[in-house]
## 1
Amino acid sequence: MTKSIHCKKLNEKKPSLDQAPFPGELGEKIYNEISADAWQLWLDRQVMLINEYRLNTRDPKSRAFLEEAMTKFLFENDDSILPPDYQPPT
C-alpha cells in the first residue's frame, strides 16, 4: 500500500515512492519529501541533461553534476543547470 506525502516539489499531497531511490541521507530525504510523480519528472529531466551535456554516468564529475542538478530541481525549483540553448518540447 502506497502512502501519501506532501510533496515539496509539487506542493501537494501525492503518493510517495515505494523506497528511497538510493542509499544515504539524501535518498531518505527524497523518500520522505518527494512524491513518485515528482521523482518521475526528475528522471525525465536527468535523461535530458545526460543527453544534452553528453554526460558519462560512470564519471564521478558527471555524477556530482547530476546530484547537484537533482537537488536544485527537487528542493529548490532551480532550473539554472539547463543547457543555455535548451527549448522545452512543445
## 2
Amino acid sequence: MRKPIVMIMAVFMVLQLWSQEISLSDINNMSAELNKKTEKAALTNAISNNSIKKLALNRENVGKVNFNINTKVETKGVSNQNKSGRCWMYTGLNVLRAKVIEKYDLTEFQFSHNYLFFYDQLEKANLFYNGMIETAALPLNDRKVEWLLKNPIGDGGQWTGVVDLINKYGIVPENAMPETYQSENTSMIGRLIKRKLREDGMELRMLGQSRMAEEMVLQKKNEKLTEIYQMLAYSFGEPPTSFEWQYKNSKGEISKSKTYKPQEFYKEVLDVDLNNYVMIMNDPGKEYGKLYEIEYDRHMQEGGNWKYINLEVDEIKKFAAKSLQANEGMYFSCDVGKQLESQKGFLDINTYDYGELFGVNFEMDKKTRIQTFESGSSHGMALMGVNILDDGKTDKWLLENSWGKSGHNGYLIMTDEWFDEYMFRLVIDKKFLDEKTLNILDQDPEMLPPWDPMYLMD
C-alpha cells in the first residue's frame, strides 16, 4: 500500500513545482538574459514606437506573387458589407449573382442583402426563444443554457443560412429592398435586440418551468416575436411581397418590366437548386472522411444544422479547381486576418515574420491553432479563380471579397500554402465531387456541440 501513496506524493510535489509564483530572482534572471542581447536597445526603440505589422513585413516576400489568374469565374461589380458581419450572406449571394449576370448578360447585378437579413434576424430570434423554452428544465449554469444566453443572435452565419432563407423566403434584387443605415451598421441594433432577447428569454424560461399550458407559452413567445419584428421593420424596412424588375444587358437592350413575388424571382431568375451544394471542411483535429454536424448551428427552427465532410486539403483543392474550370465559384471561409497584406490584397504565409522581430518562435500547426482557439473561420468570401500550372498543380487562388474596392480592386489573392494553413470550409456543387466523397453523405453524422473550436461564425 505504500507504493501508491509515495507515487501520489511525488506527483503532488511535481505539481507544486509547476505552480510556483514568479520570484524576484526569476525576474532578475529574465532581465539579465534580455540585456545580453546587443539588439535590445534598437528593437525596443523600433517596436515601442512603430506599428508591429509594418516592422514585421517581410520585404523579401513583397512583389514575389503577381495577380495573374488563368482560370477565373466571370462576374462584374463589387459588393460592400460595410460595418456588418454579413460576409457569409455576401459570399453566398456573390457566388449566385455571377450565375444571374451570365444568364442575362448583365453589366452588373446585386441581390438585396437587406431582404434576407431581415428574415435571418427574425428566424434567429425565434430559434433563441425556442431554445430557452426547450432548456427551461436545465440549471442556469448548464453549458448549453449559458451558450444560448451568450449567443442569442448575431449577424454572422454560414452557407446553410443562405440556403434555408432563400428556400423559405425567396430572393429579391437590390432595388426591391435597398440597404439602410442600420443594415450597413449593425452593431447598435444588434446590441439592442440581444438585450431584448435575453430579457424575454428569461421570462420564457420561467414560463417553461411553470405549469402553464404549452399553447399559452407559445402565445407569449409570438407576442415577443412581434416586438422583434417591429424593431427590425423600423431598422431595415418591411420586406416586399412583390416588386417590379427590369434589366439592361451588356448590349444596351432593355427588358420588359415584370412583377415578381420573391419566390417567383428565385425560381425563374436564379433557377438554382441550392440543395445540391455540399459543405467541405479541413479540420486536421478530426478524422478525415467523416460527416459532422454542429448542434444549434442553423438559422431557423426548421432549417438544417451545419453539416460538413472533413477532407484533407489536397482533395479539397482538386474539387475546387474542377468547379472553377467549369466557371462555377464557391462559398469559401477562412482566417482572413492571418498574414493578410490588406493594401495589396495578398495572403501568404510569409507576409509577416513576427517571430524574427521578437526573437521568439511561433510554430503551432493548423491542428493546434484550431484546438487552442488561435485560429478559426473569421470571414467568408467567394472563391472565384485559380492559377493552374502546366503540370496541373495550383499555386494561387482568387477570392472575391465584400469590403468594397479595398485590396486588389475588391479581390484578394492567396497562395497555395496559405490555402493549406488558413482555409476552413468550402461549399461546392455535388457534381464536382467523386463517388467516394459523395458516399460520406450517407453516414450518420457525428454531432458536435455549438462550442466546438470549429464552430466560429463567418
